[in-house]
Design goal:
- The structure is a single chain.
- Helix content is about 20%, strand content about 40%.
- By secondary structure, it is of the alpha+beta class.
- Strands 1, 2, 5, 6, 8, 9, 10, 11 and 15 form a nine-stranded antiparallel sheet that branches. The chain has a seven-stranded antiparallel sheet with strand order 3-4-16-7-12-13-14.
Length: about 300
């Protein structure tokens, strides 16, 4: 056989063998690509797990108002009502009256959670406390479970809260709607006056004032209480709205009272009498509804999502 012919056939065989090796190598690389592709396909599973975790967190959001605000019976008591309608009975401490705690108490008529806010609802025409004929669903500051009184002439005392007012009641006169959503309370006659012998009562009340039963639109921030009514008269500041979230801070330091809204000072004044026997209250305290008839459709509605009190 011709030697050249044999060499040609051998060369052809080697080329075919080399081609087989290349195809085999590509096949192996294809397997690696398949593994990578499978890894990519698995990534959405991780996203699904994250979505499930988020849904679980949302489901665990507390639906008890006391839990939303982190309330304890050592630090606060709730003034509210037992029963429905015009016959509802005012209770200075509704939890004690019902044998409840802030961890399990809610009432769709007075104290409940909606959209992450603890809501305080109070109806026109209900009864008041022994010191006021205006009804309230309101927190009163305590210390170690007892009524707490601090001296506003020394140290720094502050309350910070995130609040929205969604409805005003109708006043007894029917001409306007007013409610208080935060205050510093001072000594009254029942507590023996202050160190100067003055019946201070409400040192300062922060209120929204608007139309009767108003649910939307513009309102005034009305600053009342001894600090204005006995020192020049109540002050009304325009530019506020219902259904709007605000960050309020109320500070009493060395007898000086300052009100912050969204970080800005809107009021500041020195109290002209002793600031002893003071305490914070926050929630929903209807104003100008003394001796008003009960109306189920006329109420004040206040939502609070954050609450913090400090004394230094």
């Amino acid at each position: 056989m011709d030697k050249g012919f044999i060499l040609g056939r051998l060369q052809t065989f080697l080329i075919m063998l080399f081609a087989v090796v290349l195809v085999s190598g590509c096949s192996d690389n294809g397997t690696d690509d398949d593994v990578v592709a499978e890894d990519i396909v698995k990534e959405p599973e991780t996203e699904t797990e994250t979505e499930t975790e988020t849904e679980t967190e949302e489901e665990s959001t507390p639906e008890i108002p006391g839990k939303v605000l982190g309330l304890t019976a050592a630090d606060w008591k709730l003034n509210s009502f037992n029963g429905l309608g015009a016959e509802a009975v005012y209770e200075d401490d509704i939890l004690e009256a019902l044998g409840k705690t802030f961890d399990d108490y809610e009432d769709v008529d007075y104290f409940y959670v909606q959209d992450g806010f603890a809501y305080f609802k109070c109806y026109r025409g209900l009864g008041g406390s022994k010191n006021s004929n205006n009804p309230r669903v309101e927190l009163r500051e305590l210390k170690d479970g007892e009524n707490y009184y601090w001296d506003g002439d020394t140290g720094t005392h502050s309350m910070e809260w995130t609040v929205r007012v969604d409805q005003l009641p109708k006043s007894t006169s029917g001409t306007d709607g007013v409610l208080c959503f935060g205050q510093i309370h001072g000594p009254s006659e029942d507590q023996g006056f202050n160190d100067d012998g003055v019946d201070v009562d409400d040192t300062i009340r922060l209120q929204f004032r608007g139309e009767p039963n108003q649910k939307t639109g513009d309102v005034d921030l009305k600053i009342s209480g001894y600090i204005t009514e006995n020192q020049g008269g109540s002050i009304s500041l325009p530019g506020y709205r219902l259904n709007t979230v605000y960050d309020f801070k109320l500070v009493m330091e060395e007898g000086n009272i300052t009100v912050f809204v969204d970080g800005e000072v809107v009021f500041e004044r020195k109290l002209n009498t002793s600031g002893d026997t003071s305490y914070f209250k926050v929630g929903n305290y209807l104003q100008s509804v003394k001796e008003a008839t009960y109306e189920a459709s006329s109420f004040g509605l206040v939502g609070i999502s954050k609450l913090k009190v400090t004394h230094n």
